[in-house]
Design a protein that fits this description.
By secondary structure, the chain is of the alpha/beta class. The chain is built from six helices and ten strands; from the N terminus they run ββαβββββαββααβαα. Helix content is 38%, strand content 24%. The strands form two sheets. It has an eight-stranded mixed sheet, sandwiched between helices. Strands 4-5 form a two-stranded antiparallel ribbon. Helix 1 crosses helix 5, helix 2 crosses helix 4 and helix 5 runs antiparallel to helix 6.
Length: 245
């Protein structure tokens, strides 16, 4: 069997001015909760781009912002408070999980003191959306969740995709990590769930306070778009029925 030579490399762009920051994972997943939350935090805290992660295993996609092409997987950092975010413009394919995990552990782990992972879990009702539970890789992190009145995920379970791969890699390497599970809409981006995990869990754990009204506006916009889609589907269905009468 041929040896797997794929890897990922962190390309540092600026000097890190933070002291043992918390890394917040914001990679695309269910409800895009992690992505929306990390993007919002990066914007509100004026985090600067610290570097990028490159790998041949990442999708061959070119993303751009403010008129400039950029790497799809990026790391941002700031010192007020000490925070880093890991963001991606595209979903990470499963074949890239090992390379990304190795890169985070070997090239970034010494830069931060812990990781907070965000994972969306499909909500079965609107009332459940935004409910947050937590899991820690150590007893100290579990206690921290309890002290901040974040419910512990008491039932057995598992988290997959890139978040699960990175969380497992951190656990195996004894890198302190917390997983925040937030109930979300499984079919559409859910800014409301992102707001909930920021306000009820990230703010007390990382000790920052940011404005989240913009997420309410995003949620309202998505709701209007959903209603427009539903109305269009109903009209098309009515037209289809009338054609066969």
């Amino acid at each position: 069997m041929a040896e797997n030579t794929s890897d990922a490399t962190f390309v540092r762009e600026t000097d890190l001015e933070t002291t043992a920051p918390t890394l917040i994972e914001g990679l695309p997943g269910t409800g895009l909760v992690a992505s929306i939350a990390a993007d919002h935090i990066s914007t509100r805290l004026d985090l600067e781009r610290y570097g990028t992660i490159r790998s041949e295993e990442f999708p061959p996609v070119a993303s751009f912002s403010d008129g400039l092409v950029q790497d799809t997987v990026r790391v941002y950092a700031g010192s007020d408070p000490d925070v880093m975010t890991l963001r991606s413009d595209v979903p990470i394919p499963s074949e890239a999980f090992p390379a990304l995990s190795d890169c985070v552990l070997e090239e970034l782990a010494e830069e931060f003191r812990r990781v907070i992972f965000l994972a969306g879990a499909p909500a079965t009702s609107d009332e459940e959306r935004g409910n947050v539970t937590g899991v820690g890789t150590t007893e100290a992190l579990r206690t921290e969740l309890e002290e901040n009145e974040i419910p512990i995920a008491e039932e057995s379970g598992a988290v997959g995709d890139v978040t699960g791969a990175l969380l497992n890699a951190c656990y195996q390497a004894d890198v302190p990590a917390t997983l925040l599970l937030v109930q979300t809409n499984p079919k559409f981006p859910d800014p409301g769930a992102a707001k909930a995990v920021i306000e009820t869990a990230l703010e007390p754990l990382v000790e920052f306070d940011i404005e989240t009204a913009a997420l309410d506006e995003q949620a309202e916009q998505i709701q209007r778009q959903k209603q427009q889609i539903l109305q269009q589907q109903q009209e098309e269905s009515a037209q289809s029925r009338s054609m066969f009468r």
